[in-house]
Structure formats: structure tokens, C-alpha cells
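Quick one: sequence plus flavin mononucleotide SMILES, need C-alpha cells.
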Amino acid sequence: MSTPRERLITEEDELSVTTKETSNHESDSRENGNHESDRLDSSNESDVEDKQLLDEIALRQSIMMSDEQLIEWIKSRRTIGNLQEPAPTHEQIRAAIDCAVTAPDHKKLRPWRFIISEGEARQQLGQALLEAAEAQAARAGETLSDKTRKKTANLPMRAPVIITVVTKMQEHKKVPPFEQMLSAGSAVQNLLLALMAQGFGSVWRTGLLCNEPAVKDYFDVAADDYVVAFIYTGTSPKPKPGRKPMDIEPLLRFES
Ligand SMILES: Cc1cc2nc3c(=O)[nH]c(=O)nc-3n(C[C@H](O)[C@H](O)[C@H](O)COP(=O)(O)O)c2cc1C
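Reply:
Sure thing.
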């Protein structure tokens, strides 16, 4: 069985044949002068398909990674807590979110939103977290110490940028909320990988405060929706740690 890379190379060969055939057909058709508009329509469609295939080939060639290297790269993702400037630029954040939104998404509901907190906005987020912590403590009949208050308010200062991912679920008879939630989780994973691809470290955090009313209000999240991730991102002064090989055998079962 051929690998995707081999199939792509085969398609590239086929493409050069198809392109030649197409130009032959075009000259035949020009000579015959028949069904001109039909020919133009199908030629436009095949031009678009050819361009898509050429773009894909160019992308794969520019990556210059073998399939094995690409898999090792994905496996090398690690959480990094110590994050500093430089932070991703808006352009780099957009590139990462462009990747996040290609997550599997049943019926294309786009059940996610991304809020980027940087600069002083992190202090405002800290105040929302503090309000949430105070409400939580009050429900338990407790009050927060000054130390805890300060620590809570400063939580968002642990990285130069936080990308908060929230769900924006929609009623759909074929797409229950759990699917939309999983789609949001997949978007987060794409986001982490796209940040890593651009050289940034990241941490996926939630914490017990993330779905407190004060935090949901802060992000304008509806009652039935969730804050699913605070992605802290920036540059790590240290290389990311390795990962011990994991034994996947107890986790899987082949059936045939
Ligand atoms: C939904 C979700 C929420 C998480 N929340 C936190 C968190 O609040 N604090 C934390 O230290 N780690 C949290 N983690 C775990 C880290 O992001 C990370 O996955 C874990 O430390 C393992 O490290 P690794 O990503 O390098 O394998 C969360 C993970 C997920 C999937």
C-alpha cells in the first residue's frame, strides 16, 4: 500500500499527464468549435483542482520533513510553564488560529471563539479571576487571604499572551453539545501545534475558576457554553523537555 507521500508523488506525475491531456483537448475543441461554454466550465473546475494539488505538493515539498520526522515533531510537543517575551505577534496568533479552525467540525458550526489577552488586559482578566475566587470562597463560607488574593490576580501574568478558547455551541439536531465540545478541544490542540511550529511554548490551563460566572461574564460566554482553555504562550528560556516513551499497547485493541 502506498504512503500518502507516495500517493502525492504519483498524483504529481498524473497531474503532468492530465495537464498535457487538457491542453490537447483544448486545441481539439478549439479546432472543432463545439460546446465552447461547457468546455470552459469544466476547464475552470479542473484548473482549480490542479492549482489545489500543486499547492499541496508545494506545501509538502517546502516542509522538507519525512513522515517519520513529522510524527516525531508532533510527539515532541511539551507543556512549558516559564514563558516570557517575545510573544507571538498578532500575525503569528492569527496564523495559529487559522490552523485551530481547521479542526474537525461536524456541520461546520464553528463552535469556538478565541479571545487574546495581552498587556494590561491580563490584569483585567486577573480581576475577573479574583472575583470568581472570592465568589467561590463565599459559597464555601470562607474568605481569601491577602496572599491568595494577590496570587489569583496575578495568574494571567505568567505569560505575555493568553489565548482563551471558549465554546459557542449551537443547537443542532445532528450535532449534540459533546461533539461541539470535542471540536473545541481539537481546535486547541491545533492551536498548540501551530504555536510550536512558530517557535513558541505554551501551556493549556483551565483551573477551577475558569467556568465561574465572573469569568464567563468577562468573556461573554453563555450559560450553556464553556471556557475550555487558557493557552498561555510566549518564549521559553529553556528548551522543552523530552518525553519518556509511552507504552500504548494497553490502550489499544485491533479488531479484524
Ligand atoms: C482541558 C485541560 C485543562 C488543563 N488545565 C491545566 C491547569 O489548569 N493547570 C495545569 O498545570 N495543567 C493543566 N492541564 C495539563 C497541561 O496542559 C499538560 O497537558 C500536562 O501538564 C502534561 O504536560 P504535556 O502537555 O507536556 O504532556 C490541562 C490539560 C487539559 C487537556
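Residues 1-37 have pLDDT under 50 and may be disordered. The two ends are 18 Å apart (CA to CA).
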